C-alpha cells in the first residue's frame, strides 16, 4: 500500500529533499522559521539545514524579491514564500519586469532559477485582502512558469521540478489543499511542468479544474456518476505552459467543457481554456462551454456571504447535468456545518 | 485605556465561541499609545490603522456595537460585514479605515492629509502602524512625501518587538531606529515609552504642537509589547518564539496598571470610581455584544451591491454639465 | 465640418475641461509639469491651473498611489499619470488591494474616485521593460474600471466619464495613438463606460480590436473591402465593464470572430472575448474564432525583431480572408520604412 | 574617464544617423564617479546599474564593441540585441546587468552580494544609481537588508539634481540627504564631490576598506551633473527645466578637465600622452562602431529562443538525481 501524506507534508518533503541534494537551494520568507512554519510546510527545516539556508526576512516583499533574484544570479536557487498572494502584489515589479525577463533581456546570458510559493487564503474572514487567486496574471507573462498542484503527489513532484527548473516559477498553493491526504511516493521524483493530470477518466463531459477546484470537480464527478454521467476531470497542473493537447483530446472526445477556476471569471484563466477549445475544436462541441468561477466582487468577509461567494462541487455537478442531460440536478441538501472551513480539523482563523 | 483593555478582554473571552469568524489582532498591552494620542485629537482630526486596529478605532471614538457586529459578520457592522476585524471604519468619528496589508495605510493616511491640504481643510491625520511596517518601502515613500509637502501627519509607530513571530533581530539591523529614519528627512521625531500613558500624552502633545503650527509632519516611536498571540485570543509564550520571562517583564510594565497606580496616588480617581467605570464598560460591552449577536447577517443580494460606487444624483453627470463651448 | 484634434490633444482638452468644471480634479505624475508634458497631454496645465492642481511627484509609484487614493478619500478627484504601465507594476498593491476594494471592503461607506492614466510604450527600442500592455490584469479585478480608447473622440469622451466616475478607473493610452487625428466635438461630452463602439459596420466577419489594434483592424477592413470582404470592426473601449451585447449581436450576424489585442495571447483579454462568444453563441459560428496577439516573449529591443513581434493590419486581413473566403490573401508588399515608428513625425526614442 | 567621455561623445555624434534605434542616456559630466569607483574594483567584484549605465559598464571593463552592437540592435550585442542601451551586461567583466526601472537593480545588487555570501565567495558588489532612485521604496528595502546581513555592498548614488526634467525641489524635502538615510541604518556613508575624480577615488577607497574588512555595506553620495538631455544626444538647457547658467557652472567643474589639469601639473602625464590616448580611444571607438554597423541583425527565429533557460545537460535533472529513499 502506498504511503499517504498530507499536501503540506508533501511540500515539506520536496523542499527537504531538494535542499539535501543541492546546497544552493535555500528558503526565505516571512515566518518560514517560526513555530507555525507556514502551515507546517517549512517546519523544522531551519533546525535541519541551519539558519543560512532557511531564514526569515524583513517585511519588504518588493525589495526582498529583488534580493532573491540577485542571489539566483549569484548561483543560488532560492525558494521564496509569501503567506498570501495578496502580499506579493508588492513584488510584481521585481517578479514581472525583472525576474521573468532577466534571461531574455540579456540575450540568454544568465538564468534566474527561483521559486516563489504563493498561498491563496480562504475562509474565516480572510476577506478582500487575504484571499485573492491571481494566477491568471502570472500566466499572462512570458518568462514565468506557473504551477498550481491539487494533490499531495503532484505538490511534491511539481515542487521538485520547479526547484530544479532554471527559470522563475510561481508555485501556487490553495490554503484548503494543505490538509488533504493522498498517496505520495518516497524519494525524489518529478512531475513534468507542462503536462496535465487526468484525475478521472470519463466520456460524457470534460471538467478542467484549477487548484482547489480540482477537488470540487472530483467530488462533482462522483455525484455525476451516481446520475449516470461519466465526467472526465483534468487538472492542468501548470497554466504556463498549458498542456493544451490533453484538454483538446478530452474535449474532442466528450464534446462538452466546463472550466472551474478559483478566481474571478472575467479576465480569468478559465477564459483562456475556453478560448483554446473554441479556437481548436470550434464546431465540434455538443453544447456551449461553461465557466464556474467567482462572482465579480472582492471576497466578502462575513461567513454569511462566503457560502454564496465560493462555487462548490454542487455548482459544477448541476452545470454538468444540464449540459449532458438537459435537466436540473436534484442534490441532497449540502451537509450541515459551516461553509467557511475546509475540514473539521480547521479551527480558524488562517 | 481601561475601556480598550476590558473590551479586548471581552472579545478574547468570547472568541472561542466561534461566532467571530475572522482573524482578530488584540492590542492588550499596547493600549496607552492609542489612548494617549487620540486623547489629543479633535473630531475633525482623522486616523487610519492596520490589522491591529481595535484600540485606535475605539480611542478615536469609533462605535463599539458596530465594531463587534463587524467582527460577527453582521449587516449592522461598521463595514456592513464586508470587512471584519481587519477593516474597521467609522467616518463620523474620523476613523477613516484600517486595512491589514502591512504598511499600506501609511501612504493612504498621508494622502488624506494631502487631500485635506488641497481642499484648504485644517486637520491632523494620524497613521498608526507597527515597527514591521517600517520595513516596507511604502513607509519610506510616505515619509518622504509628507516631508516634501510639510503635511499635517502624525506617524505613530508601536514598536512591540515582533512582526507575527519574528523578532527584530531577523528583520532589522541593531543600529536601525525608526525615529532616526524620519530625522534623516528632517521630520521631528521622538522615541518614548509606549507603556507610559503620561509620556505618550506629553510626546504626542509636543508633536501635535509642531504639526498644528505648520511645522510639517512628526513621528513618534513607542516601545511597547503585545501580550497575547499575534492573531487570536490566547497567550502563546510557550510556543517558542519568545520567552515567558520577557512577557512577565513587560506585563510588569502594564500601561493600564501604571496609569491606575499613578491616578490613585494623585487622587485623580478613587477605587470607587474605578469600580463604577469597570462596571459601566462591562455593561456597555455586554450590550454591544448582544447587539452584534442579535443583528442579522447581510442578505445574499448585498454581496454584489457595493463593488462600485454609483453617483447619487439621478442625472449622473449633472455636476459637471456646463460645457465651456457651445 | 467637424474640428479635428490629435489624440493627445483630446486627452489634454478633457483634462482641462474637467479641471475647469470641478476644483477637486487635480493631476499628478512624474513629468506632468515638465517641458514635454507627457507627450503633450498635460502641457500648459500647470500654467493655467497652478502648481497646487498640476504637480510632479517623487519617483515612488507605490507610495504615491496610496497618497493619491488617500486624497480621493479626502474628497479630491485625482488623475495620476504613469508614462509606462511597466512603472505601475510597483503600485499594484495600492491599486488592486486598496483602491479597487476600498468601497467594497468598508461596506460602501466611502468611494475612491481616481483615474490612473497608464501609457503603453512601443518602438525605438522601448524593449522588455517599457512596452507592456497589461490591461488584462486590471480587467480581472472587480472594483476597477478599465478604459482603452482608440480614437481622439473617445479619448476625450471616455476620459471625461472616467474623471467623473466615482470609482478607480484605469485609463490606458497606447503611445502610437497619441498622434493620430480625428474629429473631436468641442466642450463637455461623455462616452459611456461599458459601451463598445462599432468603428465599421460589416456583415462577413467581426473583428474585435483593442486600443492600437483597433487602428490596425480598421486598416485591415479597408484592405478586405477591396477583396470583397465586408468586415465589422468593434472597439470595446472598456474591458471592465465589457459590452458583451454589441459583440454578441455582431458575431451572431457575421458568424465569424477575430480578436486583436496589443498584449500576449496566453492569458490575455482576447481570450475573454473568445470565451464569451463561445459560451453564448457556441454552435452558431461559421468557423473557428481566432486571436491576433503578441508572440509569447518579452518585447525584443532590436528593430530587426520588432517587425516580427508586433502583428499588423496585414496579419488581421490575412486571417480574415482565410476565414471568410478560405484563401490566402496576396498583399502588396508592406510600405517601405521602419516598422518601429508610428508615423513619419516620430523621431524616437519615446 | 577620458575614454568614457570620448565614447559617449562618439555615440552622441552618431546617434542622429538613427541607426541606434533605442533610448540612450549619456553620462557626460558624471564620468568621475564610474571611473573613480571602478578603478578600485577587482575582476571578481561585480557591479549593476541603471538606464544610465554606459560609464559604469565601460569603467568596469565591459566590452565596447558589444556595447555599441547592442545599441545598434545587432546579434553581436552584449545582450544579443534583446536589450539595447538600457540593458547592458558583461559577465566576464563582472558587470552583471543594468535595467531601466528606477531603483529596481539596487535590491538585485544586494541579492547578488547575499548570494555570494551564502556561497562563501568574497567579493564586493557595487550598485550604481541616481538620486531619483532613492525615492523608490526598493532602495530603502535594499539598504535595510544589506545592513541587516552586513553585506559587502557599495551603494553609489550619483546625485545629478534631476530625475528626467524634475528638479530635486519637487521630489525631496530640502532637509533630506541620501547619505543620512543610510546612516540611520548604521551604514557607513559619505557625501562627496562627484566631479572630482581624486575625491571619488579616496572616498571609494575608504568605503571599500570598511566593506572588505567585514564592516558591512557603505554608501557614497556624489554631487554631479548631467550635461546633455536626460535621454538622447543633445543639449537641452533651452527647453525650460534648467538654465544655461546652471549648466555653465557645472561645466566649469568638468571632471575630465579637472583631472587633466591636475595630472598635467603633477606630471602624471603630458600633452603628448594625452594626444596619443585620445587618438587611441577614437580609433578604438571607430573600430567598435564599424563592428556594430557591420554586424548582422538577429535572425527572426532568435526572437522566441531565449524566453526560458534550458538545462544544459541532456538528462534534464541529472544533477539532483540521487533519491534519498529507495
Ligand atoms: C504586505 C504584508 N506582508 C505580510 C503580512 C502578514 N502580516 C500580518 S500582520 C504582520 C506583522 C506586522 O508587524 P508590525 O507591523 O510590527 O505589527 P504588529 O502585528 O506587531 O502590531 C504581518 C507580517 C501582511 N499582512 N502584509
Ligand atoms: C519606476 C520608474 N519610474 C519612472 C521611470 C522613468 N524614468 C526613467 S529615468 C528616470 C530618472 C531617474 O532619475 P535618477 O535616478 O536621478 O537618474 P538620472 O537619470 O538622473 O541618472 C525616470 C523617472 C522609470 N524608468 N522607472
Ligand atoms: Mg510589531
Ligand atoms: Mg538624477
List the helices and strands and how they pair.
The complex is a heterotetramer, with 2 copies of chain A (350 residues) and 2 copies of chain B (326 residues).
Chain A: E1 4-6, H1 7-21, E2 25-29, H2 45-49, E3 54-55, H3 61-73, E4 77-82, H4 85-88, H5 92-105, E5 114-120, H6 135-139, E6 145-147, H7 152-164, E7 168-174, E8 181-183, E9 197-200, E10 205-209, H8 212-226, E11 231-235, E12 238-240, H9 244-254, E13 257-264, H10 269-281, E14 290-294, H11 303-309, H12 313-325
Parallel strand pairs in A: 2-3, 2-4, 4-5, 5-7, 6-7, 10-11, 10-13, 13-14
Antiparallel strand pairs in A: 1-8, 6-12, 9-11
Helix pairs in contact in A: 1-7, 3-5, 8-12, 9-10
Chain B: H1 2-15, H2 31-38, E1 46-49, H3 54-59, H4 64-71, E2 95-98, H5 105-118, E3 125-130, H6 137-149, E4 153-159, E5 162-163, E6 166-167, H7 178-183, E7 188-193, H8 197-212, E8 218-223, H9 244-251, H10 255-266, H11 271-294
Parallel strand pairs in B: 1-2, 1-3, 3-4, 4-8, 7-8
Antiparallel strand pairs in B: 5-6
The complex binds thiamine diphosphate (2 copies) and magnesium ion (2 copies).
Query: Care to count the β-strands of chain A?
Result: 14
The tally of strands of chain B reads: 8
Content-based structural category of chain A = alpha/beta
| Spans where pLDDT lies below 50 across 5 or more residues of chain B | 313-326
The biggest beta sheet of chain A reads: 7 strands, mixed
Q: Spans of chain A of 5+ residues with little confidence (pLDDT < 50)?
A: none
Number of helices of chain B: 11
Structural class of chain B: alpha/beta
Number of helical stretches of at least 4 residues of chain A: 12
Amino acid at each position: 500500500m502506498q504511503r499517504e501524506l498530507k499536501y503540506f507534508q508533501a511540500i515539506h518533503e520536496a523542499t527537504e529533499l531538494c535542499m539535501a541534494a543541492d546546497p544552493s537551494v535555500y528558503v526565505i520568507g516571512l515566518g518560514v522559521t517560526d513555530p507555525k512554519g507556514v502551515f507546517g510546510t517549512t517546519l523544522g527545516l531551519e533546525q535541519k539545514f541551519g539558519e543560512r539556508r532557511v531564514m526569515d526576512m524583513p517585511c519588504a516583499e518588493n525589495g526582498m524579491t529583488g534580493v532573491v533574484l540577485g542571489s539566483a544570479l549569484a548561483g543560488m536557487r532560492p525558494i521564496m514564500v509569501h503567506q498570501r498572494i495578496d502580499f506579493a502584489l508588492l513584488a510584481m515589479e521585481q517578479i514581472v519586469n525583472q525576474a521573468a525577463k532577466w534571461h531574455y533581456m540579456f540575450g540568454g546570458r544568465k538564468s534566474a532559477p527561483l521559486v516563489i510559493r504563493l498561498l491563496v487564503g480562504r475562509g474565516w474572514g480572510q476577506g478582500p485582502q487575504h484571499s485573492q487567486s491571481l494566477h491568471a496574471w502570472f500566466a499572462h507573462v512570458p518568462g514565468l512558469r506557473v504551477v498550481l498542484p491539487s494533490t499531495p503527489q503532484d505538490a511534491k513532484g511539481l515542487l521538485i521540478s520547479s526547484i530544479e527548473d532554471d527559470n522563475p516559477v510561481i508555485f501556487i498553493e490553495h490554503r484548503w489543499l494543505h490538509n488533504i491526504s493522498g498517496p505520495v511516493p518516497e524519494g525524489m521524483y518529478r512531475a513534468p511542468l507542462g503536462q496535465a493530470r487526468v484525475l478521472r477518466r470519463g466520456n460524457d463531459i470534460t471538467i478542467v479544474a484549477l487548484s482547489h477546484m480540482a477537488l470540487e470537480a472530483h467530488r462533482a464527478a462522483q455525484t455525476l456518476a451516481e446520475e449516470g454521467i461519466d465526467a472526465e476531470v483534468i487538472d492542468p497542473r501548470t497554466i504556463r505552459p498549458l498542456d493544451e493537447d490533453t484538454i483538446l483530446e478530452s474535449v474532442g472526445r466528450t464534446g462538452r467543457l466546463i472550466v472551474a477556476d478559483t478566481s474571478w471569471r472575467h479576465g480569468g484563466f478559465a477564459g483562456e481554456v475556453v478560448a483554446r477549445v473554441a479556437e481548436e475544436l470550434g464546431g465540434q462541441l455538443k453544447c456551449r462551454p461553461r465557466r464556474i468561477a467567482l462572482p465579480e466582487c472582492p471576497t466578502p468577509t462575513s461567513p454569511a456571504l462566503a457560502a454564496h461567494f465560493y462555487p462548490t462541487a454542487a455548482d459544477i455537478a448541476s452545470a454538468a447535468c444540464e449540459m449532458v442531460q438537459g435537466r436540473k440536478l436534484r442534490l441532497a441538501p449540502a451537509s450541515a456545518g459551516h461553509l467557511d472551513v475546509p475540514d473539521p480539523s480547521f479551527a480558524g482563523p488562517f | 485605556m481601561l475601556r480598550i483593555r476590558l473590551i479586548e478582554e471581552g472579545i478574547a473571552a468570547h472568541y472561542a465561541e466561534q461566532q467571530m469568524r475572522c482573524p482578530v489582532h488584540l492590542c492588550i498591552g499596547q493600549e496607552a499609545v492609542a489612548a494617549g494620542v487620540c486623547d489629543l485629537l479633535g473630531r475633525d482630526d482623522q486616523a487610519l490603522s492596520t490589522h491591529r486596529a481595535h484600540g485606535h478605532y475605539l480611542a478615536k471614538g469609533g462605535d463599539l456595537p458596530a465594531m463587534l457586529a463587524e467582527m460577527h459578520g453582521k449587516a449592522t457592522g461598521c463595514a456592513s460585514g464586508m470587512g471584519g476585524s481587519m477593516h474597521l471604519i467609522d467616518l463620523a468619528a474620523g476613523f477613516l479605515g484600517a486595512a491589514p496589508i502591512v504598511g499600506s495605510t501609511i501612504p493612504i493616511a498621508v494622502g488624506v492629509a494631502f487631500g485635506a491640504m488641497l481642499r484648504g481643510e485644517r486637520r491632523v491625520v494620524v497613521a498608526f502602524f507597527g515597527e514591521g511596517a517600517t520595513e516596507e518601502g511604502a513607509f519610506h515613500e510616505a515619509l518622504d512625501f509628507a516631508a516634501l509637502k510639510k503635511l499635517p501627519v502624525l506617524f505613530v509607530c508601536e514598536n512591540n518587538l515582533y512582526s507575527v513571530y519574528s523578532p527584530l533581530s531577523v528583520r532589522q539591523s541593531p543600529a536601525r531606529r525608526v525615529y532616526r529614519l524620519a530625522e534623516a528627512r528632517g521630520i521631528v521625531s521622538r522615541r518614548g515609552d509606549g507603556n507610559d500613558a503620561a509620556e505618550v500624552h506629553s510626546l504626542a502633545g509636543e508633536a501635535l504642537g509642531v504639526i498644528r503650527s505648520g511645522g510639517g509632519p512628526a513621528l513618534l516611536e513607542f516601545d511597547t509589547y503585545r501580550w497575547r498571540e499575534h492573531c487570536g485570543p490566547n497567550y502563546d509564550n510557550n510556543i517558542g518564539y519568545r520567552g515567558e520571562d520577557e512577557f512577565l517583564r513587560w506585563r510588569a510594565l502594564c500601561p493600564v496598571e501604571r496609569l491606575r497606580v499613578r491616578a490613585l496616588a494623585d487622587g485623580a480617581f478613587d477605587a470607587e470610581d474605578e469600580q463604577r467605570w469597570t462596571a459601566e464598560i462591562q455593561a456597555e460591552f455586554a450590550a454591544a455584544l448582544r447587539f452584534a449577536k442579535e443583528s442579522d447577517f447581510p442578505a445574499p443580494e448585498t454581496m454584489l451591491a457595493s463593488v462600485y460606487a454609483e453617483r447619487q444624483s439621478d442625472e449622473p453627470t449633472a455636476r459637471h454639465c456646463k460645457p465651456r463651448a457651445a
